[in-house]
């Protein structure tokens, strides 16, 4: 490609780009579960802006284009909830999702320091589950959301080193 991807904190001006990317990225999930009413596809720009104000968001840029994003926040209990890790379909399988996950974890080990990291994904989302396991996350619970979807919550303690998945 000739350009390197840079990761930085999202700005308010990135909200519309993040929402468009989110809509693109969650098409596969909607198809996998046969449900196009999932929250990432119905979230409004105002809702996204409010979410960004409440937490922290990182974006990855290729030149000026936002090509990936992740967001999260730390609760009073010390749990950092990480959400909506998205990577443009043309850039998947190049390690960008793992880089973003590492970057947001690093952010949340500062003030306020997280005691644990938690995230969730659908039970059929094997690529997501594989990535999270390769970064040291383990399933802690499941919740049946509907006839086709069970959410798997994964967690790891803060400070736990990620390990490489064996091939």
List the helices and strands and how they pair.
Blueprint: E1 5-9, H1 15-25, H2 27-33, H3 39-42, H4 45-54, E2 56-62, E3 65-74, E4 79-87, H5 96-108, E5 116-122, H6 126-134, E6 138-144, E7 150-157
Characterization of this structure:
Mean pLDDT is 91; it is low at 163-167. The chain has helices at 15-25, 27-33, 39-42, 45-54, 96-108, 126-134; strands spanning 5-9, 56-62, 65-74, 79-87, 116-122, 138-144, 150-157. It has a seven-stranded mixed β-sheet, sandwiched between helices. The protein is α+β, with helices and mostly antiparallel strands and 167 residues long. 23% of the residues are buried.
Short structural summary:
The chain is built from six helices and seven strands. 32% of the residues lie in helices and 32% in strands.
């Amino acid at each position: 490609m000739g350009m390197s991807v840079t990761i930085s904190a999202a700005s308010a001006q990135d909200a519309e780009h993040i929402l468009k990317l989110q809509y693109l990225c969650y098409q596969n999930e909607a198809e996998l579960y046969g449900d196009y009413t999932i929250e990432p596809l119905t979230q409004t720009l105002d809702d996204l802006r409010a979410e960004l104000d409440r937490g922290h968001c990182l974006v990855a840029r290729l030149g000026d284009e936002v090509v990936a994003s992740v967001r999260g926040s730390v609760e009073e209990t010390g749990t950092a909830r990480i959400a909506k890790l998205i990577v443009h379909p043309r850039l998947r399988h190049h390690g960008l999702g793992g880089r973003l996950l590492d970057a947001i974890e690093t952010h949340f080990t500062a003030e306020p320091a997280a005691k644990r990291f938690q995230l969730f994904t659908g039970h059929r989302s094997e690529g997501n589950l594989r990535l999270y396991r390769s970064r040291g996350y383990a399933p802690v619970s499941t919740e049946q959301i509907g006839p086709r979807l069970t959410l798997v919550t994964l967690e790891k303690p803060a400070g736990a080193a990620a390990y490489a998945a064996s091939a």
